[in-house]
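Exercise: predict the fold of this chain.
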Amino acid sequence: MVLMRTLIIDDSPMARRVIRHHLTKVGCRVVGEAENAAQGLKLFQTLKPDLITLDVMMPEVEGVDSLKALHEMLTVKPDLSAIIVSAIPYEKVRDGFLREGALAYIVKPFTASSFEPARQKLIRVLRQSAA
């Protein structure tokens, strides 16, 4: 199985730990973690991961700026997969990220079942990249 190189960008250490747990269960290898978007963008440029998870509301960059950050990363690496993890439950926000190209949008606090649709999409992506 191809290991998807993953960068987790979230200001919450607990959220990063839970996200890492769920991603490693589907064959992802976490290659970096960032506690804010500025740090995440720098790591992204260095690591060039296959997948990022991005929190919408963090110090320094939030909301629309997070959407712009995702757009910038997708411009650099069009085959990048992204999972958005946010406490913002609004469809308008979710739809903006999904239109931009995010694979999934998960609302915090999340459980294993709320993470499951994103896991299933990741499994499909991993299978396609292995083929």
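Check your answer against the key: The helical segments are 13-25, 37-47, 64-76, 91-100, 112-130.
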